[in-house]
Amino acid sequence: MKKRFESFVPVPDTLLEKAIKEQDHVLSLEPNSSTTDLTAVGEGRGTMLSMKLDRLSDSVTGLSVVDPKGYVTDLNSMRITSFSENMDTKRARLLFKSITKTNPKHPPGWIGAARLEEAAGDMHTARQLIQKGCKECPKNEDVWLEACRLVNSNKEEASAVIAMGVKAMPNSVKLWMQAAELEQDDVKKSRVLRKGLEHVPDSVRLWKAAVELANEEDARAIIQNTVGIGVEEEDCEMTWVADAEECKERGSIETARAIYDHALSVFPTKTNESAEVLWLMGAKDKSLLGDVTAARAILQEAHASIPNSEEIWLAASKLEFENQEPERARMLLAKARDRGAMERVWMESAILERELGNSAEERRLLEDGLKRFPLISKLWLMLGQLQERLGNLKQAKAAYGSGLKHCPNCIPLWLLLGELEEKMNGLNRARAILTMARKKNPHNPELWLAAVQAESRHGNKKEADFLLARALQECPTSEILRDSLKPRVRSSSQAKQS
Q1: pLDDT digits (tens, 9 = 90+) for 7-51
Q2: So which domain of life are we looking at (predicted)?
Q3: Which of 20, 196, 222, 398 is the 20 to 30 Å CA partner of 252?
Q4: Helix pair angle (253-266, 204-213), 10° resolution
Q5: 478: left (phi over 0), alpha (psi -120 to 50) or beta
Q6: For the chain, counts of helices (H) and of strands (E)
Q7: Using an 8 Å Cβ cutoff, are 102 and 47 in contact?
Q8: What digits encode the pLDDT tens for the residues 182-227?
């Protein structure tokens, strides 16, 4: 028997080799030693693996600080590595048996042992082992979550396991969340979450989950009591805006609306950007739900709170226009202009009149706006385009020309003037305009491309190619110029083949 037993003992495997290196000394297993037996080898391996697992635990409290999912991943990779190094299931069982026997209060040992049996297809033994782990380590979340996972196919049994878990650890947010997840009915889920909040009243995660399941009135009540938990006072507005947006993206409209309303009640008189955003988001939310009256009310409160906010004036006007109330929209924009609004309000006022087909009023607004804001190129562009639409080409040319005197670096003004000159006076005049534009705005590929296209429209292929070559020298990295070169190269090669 002794000879047979001795021949069974293997040379130390990779696990022992790694452990030996880490300990900086050599352990020798003599094949002929009377003290060397399978139990000793198993205990040795168990001790070394336990030391590795202990590194995953808190050195002060001894409690696991590893995320259970991440830990399970580690176990899986360790198991695969062990099997790839020919450590068979029997040896692994002995290894984990040694770990759980020598250190039964160490949760990873029980989880590893259960995972081993699960991988071997013995679910009954896996569940028995993790149940023992729950008894030995009743204050560890990972063990209870693993026990729940192993019986998850049976919802009643999983619920029973998690119920024992929350009884042993009533302050565990993870266990309460798992308990709620196991419930099929929203009412029961909500009941579980509220029970959890009785034990962990400051858990943001539990509160958010409860809000998403609550009706509108309850949601508002919950938000008022919880939205400030864990948030510094100076960060409240920014955090609440982000929370509300996140809720909207997840489809939790009631929660988002409750956060908006609460934020507005807390910061009704603030005039900073965050408060403005809150008002606008709240109004937009109501509008998307079809509640125009509520959206109006929010924007009216916003006017009272931030009377000089252009964004709020514009949002109110847009709301009225989109709901077939053009006179209301007009009136709001007129009030904004009277209060000394900036150029955007004048532009939006002109756009409104254009949409309503009132060209005379559109022109008046643009001309008045330009008296106040002559350096705003967009107003000059709008005025010139209006004159072109009306067929007033000379007036359009005058508008573009005046615009370029104030805004010589506005490329769209140069392009529109060049096109108009080509239409009115032919290619030579357009060339002059585009040449002047390039002198005032060198290295601009759009101006070069406009010149190339103008020559091409008139059949001047050589001149167009010459201009394109110069353009690529001046703007060698321009994508639009390179793209315009491709069809020319293609047509040239086709001509040679023919």
Answers
A1: 334 434 444 444 444 444 333 333 343 333 444 444 444 444 444
A2: Eukaryota
A3: 196
A4: 120
A5: beta
A6: 28, 0
A7: yes
A8: 888 888 888 898 888 888 877 778 877 877 776 655 766 666 666 6
Counting every residue written for the chain, the total comes to 498
Q: Distance (Å, rounded) from C-alpha 161 to C-alpha 144?
A: 7
Q: 310: which residues sit within 8 A by CB, 6+ positions away?
A: 336, 341, 342, 344, 345
**Alpha-helix residue ranges (DSSP H) falling in 137-172:** 141-150, 155-168
Alpha carbons 207 and 78: distance in angstroms, whole number = 37
290 burial via Cβ count (<10 Å: 0-12, 13-18, 19+): exposed
- Any idea what the Cα angle at residue 96 is, between residues 90 and 97, rounded to 5°? 85
Long-range CB pairs of 198-207, under 8 A, 24+ apart, other chains included? 199/170, 199/171, 200/171, 200/173, 200/176, 202/229, 202/230, 203/173, 203/176, 204/229, 204/230, 205/173, 205/177, 206/173, 206/176, 206/177
269 exposed, middle or buried (CB, 10 Å; 0-12, 13-18, 19+)? exposed
Q: Which residues pair with 125 in a beta bridge?
A: none
Q: DSSP assignment of 410-466, as one string?
A: -HHHHHHHHHHHHHHH-HHHHHHHHHHHHHHSTT-HHHHHHHHHHHHHTT-HHHHHH
The answer to whether the predicted template modeling score (pTM) of the entire model surpasses 0.70 is no
381's tokens:
């562009």
Ramachandran angles phi, psi of 57, nearest 5°: -110, 160
Q: What is the dihedral of CA 328, 321, 312, 364, to 10 degrees?
A: -70
Look at residue 272 in the predicted model and tell me its pLDDT: 55
**Structural tokens at position 396:** 């359009």
DSSP-based three-state secondary structure for 407: coil
Residue 64 CB contacts under 8 Å (≥ 6 apart), including other chains: 56, 57, 58, 71, 107, 108, 140, 141, 142
Query: Nearest 5°: CA angle at 32, between 28 and 33?
Result: 60
CA 126, 129, 131, 136 dihedral sign is negative
Helix (H) or strand (E) holding 220: helix 216-226
Token pair 């009640």 in the structure block, residue:
265
Q: What is the DSSP string of 316-340?
A: HHHHHHHTT-HHHHHHHHHHHHHTT
262 vs 247: CA distance, rounded Å: 14
Closest CA to 148 of 116, 177, 189: 177
CB 363 within 8 A of CB 371: no
What tokens were used for 331? 């009136």
Residue 480 token pair: 């639009």
Q: Is 58 helix (H, G, I), strand (E, B) or coil?
A: coil
State how far the Cα of 439 lies from the Cα of 218, in Å rounded to an integer. 67
Q: Name 136's Cβ contacts closer than 8 Å, sequence gap at least 6.
A: 100, 104, 105, 110
Nearest residue to 484 via CA among 458, 451, 459, 439: 451
